[in-house]
Design goal:
globular; 7 helices; alpha/beta
């Protein structure tokens, strides 16, 4: 199975994936495209800009096509598209041109686990974090998920609660393993 955990920053994606990875030793865990690109020497603006998020979106699409059957993804093209669309200069993005590539890539996934922002937050939020962007991305991602054109409903599972509860929800949905 190919499974992605998606959401805005600081919703617990990486923590959940670490928990899943411990229980699924036969699965490869692909880190966020941001970290992949940074490791390869890509120089991000601080904070990342539209071009940086587009690079991450492209890498996320490549990752889905280039990965093996048992892979866990930290992010997907969908949440990175939400980041692209939340940038100040996103008016220049041709959504009609980008969306088919995102949809086609998402078809590679068996499950998409969405972690919405919860209150109180499940992850300690650094004071330096852009919380406004976090909220806008969560709103945009939810809007994209509800899009009629996207049609990921059969693969989409929204997770809430503490880490162990979220992991149990994944096991119940996938029957991948049990504790």
């Amino acid at each position: 199975m190919k499974m992605a955990v998606i959401g805005a920053h600081f919703t617990g994606k990486t923590s959940l994936l670490a928990e899943l990875s411990r229980s699924l030793p036969d699965y490869a865990l692909l880190p966020e495209p941001y970290y992949q690109l940074a490791e390869e020497g890509y120089l991000f603006a601080s904070p990342p800009n539209l071009e940086d998020y587009q690079a991450q979106l492209n890498r996320a699409i490549e990752n889905l096509y280039d990965s093996g059957p048992n892979t866990l993804f930290d992010r997907s093209p969908l949440d990175l598209l939400a980041y692209v669309l939340c940038q100040p200069d996103s008016d220049y993005v041709d959504l009609e041109a980008v969306l088919p590539d995102v949809i086609n890539a998402l078809e590679q996934l068996d499950n998409i686990f969405y972690l919405p922002i919860e209150s109180p937050a499940r992850i300690d939020l650094p004071a330096s974090e852009d919380l406004d962007l976090r909220e806008r991305v969560d709103d945009k991602l939810r809007e994209l998920l509800m899009s009629v054109d996207l049609q990921v409903e059969s693969k989409l599972i929204e997770l809430q609660g503490p880490l162990k509860v979220r992991a149990q929800q994944v096991w119940q949905q996938t029957n991948a393993v049990s504790f």
